Amino acid sequence: MKTLLRFIYDHERDFADRTWLTQPMGGGSLREFTWREALDETRRMAAYLRDRGYPPGSRIAILSKNCAWWFLADLAIWMAGHVSVPIYPTLTADSVRAIIDHADARLVFVGKLDQFPAMEPGIPRHVERIAFPLSPPGAGQPWNDLVTSMPPMAGAPDRAPDDLVTIMYTSGSTGSPKGVMHSFRTMNHSYTIRELAQMRPDDRFISYLPLAHVAERALLETTCFMVGFSVWFVERLETFVEDVKRARPTVFGSVPRLWMQFQAGVFAKVPPRKLARLLGMPVAGWLVRRKVLRGLGLAHTRVAFYGSAPSPVELIEWYRRLGLELFEIYGMTEGWAYSHMGEVDRLRPGWIGRPVPGVEHRLTSEGEVLVRTPGLMLGYYKAPELTRETIDDGWLRTGDRGEIDKEGRLRITGRVKELFKTSKGKYVAPAPIENRLLADHRIEQACVTGSGMPQPCALVVLSRGARDGAGGEPGLISGLARLKEHVNATLDPHEKLHAIVVVGDAWTVENGLLTPTMKLKRGAIEEKYGPFIEDWYEGEGVVMAPC
C-alpha cells in the first residue's frame, strides 16, 4: 500500500518548483511555499524531532489555527516516526491539559491562536514547545531557528501502513474527549473521496475549517497529500471573503451555518424577493448569478459540499438556482469521514446520498445508523471498553438516527439520545424541527427543547441584520409568528411549537454553547436558559428574551 508519505515524496520530485501552500503573513503580504521549499523545512524539522531521542511512536501535539506550518508539522511528525495529536485552537486551558495529559504528549507545536494567554496554562511545564511563525510571542522555540540550524533528513523515510500515526480527540456534543486512533491504511480511504470529487493537481482549495476536525483533515489535508493540489490559508475572520476571492477555490466545502451566512450576506444587499425575480430573467439571471458567485469568491467553484450537520432543503435549492450544486458528505471521526457522499446525478434534497464504495449501512430497530467502513479507526486510545461499545462485529455505532430510501440514500433525522419526552408522554426529535426553522433567512441558530413541558418550544438566535429589517421589532415578531404557524402546519400535534423564543446572545464555541465543530451543546444551552423557560412558556407565540 502506498502511504501518504510516499505520495508526498512523489510530489516533491514531480512538482518541485510548483507553488503548493500560500500563507498570508499580515499586512497584505503572502509567503508562497513550493513543494521543494516546503519539504526542505519539513525534513529539517523531522531531523530535529528524531534527534530529540523520543521513543518511536511518541505523541506530539499541534495546537494552532490552520496555516502552512500545520501541514509541515504533521508530515515532520510522521517522518520522524511519531504520532500527531491535533488540538482545537478554541479549547479552554483545562481541555488542552486533558488532551495533552491523556495522550502523554512529549512536545506541542504552538501556532496561530487568538486566546493563547488563556490557553497557555493548559500546556504542562515539562512539555517542550515549538512556535510556528505567526504564533503569539513567547509561545516556544521558534520554528525558523530550528529549521535553519538542522540539516534536512535524507532519503524517503516511510512508515508501515498499519502504524498508529494520528490520534484525533473528539467529544461530539457531550461527554469527555475520546482519542480516535488512525493509521495510514484507514486514512488512505480518502483516495476514493478524491476520485468521487474528481480532484486534480491543478485544483485550488482554501483551508479554514479546523484541521483538528476529521472533515478538514480527511477531505482537504489528506486528499491534498495524495493529489498535490494548491492550498491557500485564511489570514483572519475579517479577511475571510477577500481570502476566498484571492484563492478562487475550484473545490469548496463548509458547514451549513457558513452557507447560510453567505446567503444572509447576499440578502443584506439584495432583498430575497428582488433577487428571486432577477434570477428568473433569461439574460439578466445569468449575469446576476455570476455576480453573486464572484462576490462570494466562488465563481470558479465546480465542486461544493457541506457536512457536520443537515442543511435546510430551501438553502440547497437557493444555491442550485445560482448554479452551484451543493452535495453533502457524512462521516465520523471514528470512520475517517469515509461513509456517505452525495452524487450529482442522484441528489435528493434533504438526503445525504448512498454509501461510498466499500461501505455498508443498516439501521437498528431503534433507527440508529450502523456503518461498516474500511476507514474504521484502530480504536479509542486507552479505552478498550469504550471501543467495544462503539464497534459491534465491525459495525460502527454512529449514535445518529436515520432513514434509508429505496435507492439506498441516507437521511439523518437526529441523534439517538436527543429525543426528549413532553409532559404528555410523547417523544420529540428536535433536529427536523430545527432544520425547518433554519430554512428561514432570519434565523441563524435554533434549539428545540421541551422535556417535561406540554409542548416543545424553540430557542433561536437571529441572523445578522434580521433585527434591522423592515418593520422593526413589530415586523420581526409578526414574521416569526407566521413562520411558527408555517412550521407547525408540517408537524404532528405533539411536536407543534408552543413558542419561538428569540435570545439575545449568539451561541459560540467561546461561550461553551457550541462544540469546536459548530454543533449545539444542548445540555449547556438548556442549562443556561432553563431557569427562564417556565416564564417564557407563558408567552405563547413569539417571545423576545432579554438574555
SSE diagram, text form:
Elements: H1 4-14, E1 19-26, E2 29-34, H2 35-51, E3 59-63, H3 68-79, E4 83-87, H4 93-103, E5 107-110, H5 116-119, E6 128-131, E7 141-142, H6 143-149, E8 164-170, E9 178-183, H7 184-187, H8 190-196, E10 204-207, H9 214-227, E11 230-233, H10 240-247, E12 251-254, H11 256-269, H12 272-279, H13 282-296, E13 303-306, H14 313-321, E14 326-330, E15 340-341, E16 354-355, E17 360-363, E18 368-372, E19 379-380, H15 384-390, E20 391-392, E21 395-404, E22 410-415, E23 420-421, E24 427-428, H16 430-438, E25 443-449, E26 457-462, H17 472-488, E27 499-502, H18 522-537, E28 541-544
Helix pairs in contact: 1-9, 2-3, 2-6, 8-9, 12-13
CATH architecture of the domain at 4-157 and 189-233: 3-Layer(aba) Sandwich
Name the structural class.
alpha/beta
Helix share bin: 25-40%
Strand content: 15-25%
Q: Provide the spatial order of strands within the biggest beta sheet.
A: 4-3-5-6-7
User: Runs with pLDDT <50, length 5+?
Assistant: none
Please state the average pLDDT score.
91
Largest sheet: 5 strands, parallel
The top level CATH class name of the domain at 4-157 and 189-233: Alpha Beta
Question: Superfamily at the CATH H level of the domain at 4-157 and 189-233?
Answer: ANL, N-terminal domain
Report the radius of gyration as a whole number of Å: 24 Å
Q: Number of helical runs?
A: 18
Number of strands: 28
The coarse overall form would be: globular
